[in-house]
Design goal:
By secondary structure, this protein is an alpha/beta fold. It folds into two domains: about 110 residues, translation initiation factor eif-2b, domain 1 (Four Helix Bundle (Hemerythrin (Met), subunit A), Up-down Bundle), CATH 1.20.120.420; about 200 residues, Translation initiation factor eif-2b, domain 2 (Rossmann fold). Strands 6-5-4-7-10-15-16 form a seven-stranded mixed beta sheet. A hairpin with a 2-residue loop joins β12 and β13. α1 runs antiparallel to α2, α2 packs antiparallel against α3 and α2 runs parallel beside α4. It is globular. The two termini are about 35 Å apart.
Length: about 350
Amino acid sequence: MPEPGSPPARRSPPAVRALRWEGGSLVVLDQRQLPGATVHRTLGHLPEVAEAIRTLTVRGAPTIGVAAAYGMVLGQRVDGLGVDEAARLLRETRPTAHDLFVGIAEVERAWREGKDTLEAAAAYERRLVEECHAIGEAGAPLVGQGARVLTHCNAGALATVAWGTALAPIRVAFRSGRDPFVWVDETRPLLQGSRLTAWELREEGIRHAVIADNAAGYFLGRGEVDLVIVGADRITRSGDFANKVGTYEKAVLARENGVPFYVAAPWSTFDASLTRGDEIPVEERSGDEVRNFAGIATAPEGSPVRNPAFDLTPHRFVRGFITPDGVLAPEEIEERLKAQRPLHP
């Protein structure tokens, strides 16, 4: 609950919005261009949506799930594709984020049942936005007055259409007058923290500082972090989860320094079909993302590169999962998933 005397949190979502359906097309904020330029792109065909997901024009597990849902609509209404072909093209874009497959499945189900696919996609988007706001309300009590929060990658409005997952509790706490401070991991190699999270926080006026990824241990060790909140791309029923590479390190460091570590996610990120983290497919991206920085070579030509986009964190490092229905301990996830409306690809 808000501290005594705190003003109530505003329910209106932040001005930042990752995408919108407009005039029969999907309009997306090109996240590759931030923070230098705010560029919106209009996607009128399913292959364009698939390419936008593949190239990180739109990114963040919940956002790409919604983008894929609208991509299915375009596949049916504009491109004249069959349902199987439309779903296949989108499923092949990125393998790790469970939300992608849920978004496809929600519209695929409506398509096969002869229902309105646009309404199915819009309903999925509305549910996601509502769940992310609920995550903010559920997690805000963890963010005390002046709390110093470490986060990794971007799990804000850009990654979730509106409120965010990891940033949602911070936003709600801020709007309740608690003045949180955020340590923003830069998140190499594509700098989703320094480029995107810092941009969102600046837009809303939330205090923050960008740090190099390998500086997190320094601040944790000095007692300058009160809690860690991250998002996720897929969570198993045991609580093992995948998130942007570098998350596992933060979880281990938090445990070593006695700092509580939380994961925030909507129900579409939970994969009830998997038990352990090592069952989650991990995307490896082009080595050029590591080999170069801003067009400048940062490794010798010909040096081999490994570039996993995600890593796997065991549930034993997690204090709690901030969900739309409250903060759950890892051992509570499996039972709670049984009570949820099935969201299966």
